[in-house]
Amino acid sequence: MLKTNTQHKIKAFFQKYTYTLIIGITIMAVAITIALTLSAGDDNVLDVGTKPIEFTSPVANGSIYKDFSSTELQYNEALKQWEIHKAIDYVGESSTQVLSAYEGTVKNVYTDYLNGTVIEIEHSDGLKTIYKSLDNEVRVAINDKVQKGTVLGVMSTSMAKESTGTPLLHFEVQLNGLLVDPNTYLNTTNK
Ligand SMILES: [Zn+2]
């Protein structure tokens, strides 16, 4: 009998307060949603003022010889084989200047047989630009700060892996250590 009474009381309680409970839960859910939206809004406020990164062309003049490809095979005349080419190759005269595409810090300068003379520049936001096939007389050293357009050196035929006898710049872009399409950061009318 006592049990039945308790059940009746519980049932009566819910019948009386169902709407109050539903309204209470709804108000809490709305309040939580507003709080989350506002805190997300605060993060966005911090981003105001950051513009998308835009590179300048890494060559003073010259034309694109081989574009970036992530899946499509391109023929490598130096190695006589088809391969994926995750870079942009520019060709020009031997005096063609190679420029830093964006502001950053020179992290590495080296020469090896396959890649020729190479300069690596670290930028903000996990970005890195890599310039291969330069003449070995480079204009910058490790730890130098460079601006967009700083002259790094001139293109050459030093990259055995890709050289066909024409001076060349092999330009790579890394985002968090992975090669990405440089075109994403280049102004297409001026690349
Ligand atoms: Zn290349």
Notes on the protein architecture:
This protein is elongated. The longest helix is centred in the first third of the chain and has 46 residues, at about 1-45. It is an alpha+beta fold and about 190 residues long. The termini are far apart. It folds into 2 domains: about 1-50; about 65-190, Distorted Sandwich (Glucose Permease (Domain IIA)), CATH 2.70.70.10. Strands 1, 4, 6, 7, 8, 9, 11 and 12 form an 8-stranded antiparallel β-sheet that branches. Strands 2-3 form a two-stranded antiparallel ribbon. Strands 5-10 form a two-stranded antiparallel ribbon. The protein has 1 helix and 12 strands, in the order αββββββββββββ. Strand 2 and strand 3 (about 80-85) form a beta hairpin. The structure holds zinc ion (ZN).
SSE inventory with pairings:
Elements (H helix, E strand, L loop, with lengths): L1 H46 L15 E4 L6 E4 L4 E4 L3 E4 L5 E3 L4 E9 L3 E7 L4 E8 L10 E2 L4 E4 L13 E8 L2 E3 L11
Antiparallel strand pairs: 1-4, 2-3, 4-11, 5-10, 6-7, 6-9, 7-8, 8-11, 11-12
